Amino acid sequence: MKEKASKDIVEKYEKLKKVVEKHRYDYHVLDKQEISEEALDSLKNELVKLEEKFPHLITADSPSQRVAGKPLDKFEKVPHKVAQWSFNDAFTEEDIENFDKKIKRALGTEKQIEYVCELKIDGMHIVLEYKKGELIMASSRGDGKIGENVLMNVKTIQSIPLKLKEKVDAIVEGEIWMAKDIFNKINEERKKNDLDLYANPRNLTSGTMRQLNPNIVAQRKLDCFIYDISYPEKIVPKTQKEELEQLKDWGLKVSKYFEVCHGIAEVIAFWKKWQKKSGKENYWIDGVVIKVNERSLQNKLGYTGKAPRFAIAFKFPTEQVTTEIEDIILQVGRTGVLTPVAHLKPVSILGSIVSRATLHNEDEIKRLDVRIGDTIILEKAGDVIPKVVSVVKEMRIGKEKAFLYPKKVLACGVDGSIEKIPGQVAWRCVNKNSFAQQKRKFHHFVSKKVFNIDGLGPKVIDVLLEENLINSFDDIFSLKKGDLLLLPRFAEKSVDNLLESIENAREIDLARFIMSLSIDQVGEETAIDLANRFGSFEKFKRASLEDLDNIEGVGEVVSQAIIEWFKDKENLKMLERLLKEVQIKNPQKTSQKLKAQVFVLTGTLETIGRDEAKEKIRLLGGSVSSSVSVKTNFVVAGEKAGSKLDKAKKLGVKIINEKEFLKLIQ
Most buried pick, 168, 171, 451, 467, via CB within 10 A? Predict the structure, then answer.
């Protein structure tokens, strides 16, 4: 029979907990130290010994529970009670001024807006849930709807309290980060052992938080700033400033470097100040987060499909290089919109050789005053597409040529006329069914990722269009043998094979069918999201703007494009005819063994095609990404795997070979 603690021992235990908690808070939250680390360790040790002797005394908020339990087998997936948003980015003063204008326009005011500026810490987003003041859940962002339970790892972070100073029910959000000196020390050790160095602290922080052994996490001494109360709404203070003060009052660690700014000029001044100061802190800062201060105005502004309208991340300048513009070409998209593309003298930026950069539209060309032959400053931030920031006008020698939009563009069909889209800065082909557009749409329609019609490649499509054998997608399915035998280089055998391929393509998955329609802004991943969300084409067709807007990753622009496509009478007529020719397979309700798991495929797979592998993953509830990130669960490495494999190793992402992958999807 275990010994029962006396009243004096219980009192001593409670006092020990309070003393240890006080010094933890002072050291890890307030950055002050009244006793040495050795003395604090001694107090903790005394506490642990009492708990070993009287285990019934142990409570969830005991300091001993910060590193406890066996390593996990896997992370449990948990749904978020509050949707997790990401911020839109601003990179220049003009970007942030436009953000301010949008805010004022949305609120119908010309008065200065009061903003709160907070440092944007380069770390990992975390969601903490407290019940009656006690920490009961900690989860990663995940896909915004479902995250991973990382409670055991979070308990090792000394700046995160296991118990708040008030018995409140709340969900709070923040950023977990790794100190520069810790990061450098880890890399020094790896260098001594001839191991690959970690690329940056953000990736190492995320990789650390995905360690199944909490003891490893504890050794890396992560830290955390909290900046938001996301639930319940009724307890959130009236301003962002008061919200940060409330978090501090609860005993949570809040960055002391936040500031209330009156108007956008003060925001820019804060941003400029911290560009110079950011390197002095012991953590990485990659920008400033700007939020409207008044909570009532935040609620009025609301959210887009993926980000809050009342806030934005104002990023610090990233790597920039100079190069020359050799030409500017108008590229015709599938929807007929003309995009000016700068052809550049090839240049390396952030490890990638680039030779193209979009100039977006005519207004952007005028704003930059960019000319063919100019030396320009090119900027790239992480995975963002390179953009032309400015022109180095001092480098001009007088031979540069201004770019003017022509009256006609050959790719826009026989007439070639172009026009400005009403209410927009973009230009498009007047002939909305121009040959260039038609070719692109048909090439896309029959491609591997859509209807996958073997033998019906771009050259064959071009001939069929030129001979007016097809003018609409449904025409492909009504082609007859006699029609095709009249065409040059079409022998009986090749015609039979083509018609057989067309016949085999009459059954198509819902996601591929949605993608086949060339709806503006709807690519492969968006089509998959739409198919999974609605389950049938009829439900998708009837979806309202609100229904579409509520889907993560869709947003206003995509939603509006879908609504506009279904308003077009010609589209509806074509659709009616096409649906008579094909059969749509709705998403299968199969095993969800790979639910919420993110895969990246790299290298050549010998026994299964890349597209077939992707389809298998999606059928089992998983998703496929084209790039490796902290959200990646598995990298499937085939023969001659490239840079994605290297990145996976650096991030600590699980790597499996083809044999292991096939076993996983059985």
Answer: 451
